[in-house]
Amino acid sequence: MTTQTPTTWPEGVIGRYLTVGGATVDLTHRFTVLNPPEPYASLATCNGCSATEERNHYRTYYPSGGYLSDAVEEHEPDVADSVARDWAQAHAERCRALPKPTA
Predict the structure, then answer these.
(1) Structural domain count of the chain
(2) What is the domain range of residue 83?
(3) Are 40 and 5 in contact (CB under 8 A)?
(4) Which tens digit of pLDDT belongs to each residue from 24-44?
């Protein structure tokens, strides 16, 4: 039995999934240009085929009948992370792209 030593994840990666082809799907946050920067979206990126899924941390709700003047914006980073993780897992289960060469 071969034991693999885990490699250090790149800076900013908050989750990683191994594809069936041996590449990885990395979860990161996208940041604003504010000082200090704040995450505004969760991003899943396949390092084999370059497929991506981005989920905004902000959701707009229309509580009373869908009128624009009643719109309420909620900050929901956990929901965005969860959806991005679900996409990353599903993509990793079927992506057969090989990892990109490093040299």
Answers:
(1) 1
(2) 15-94
(3) no
(4) 999 999 998 887 888 999 999
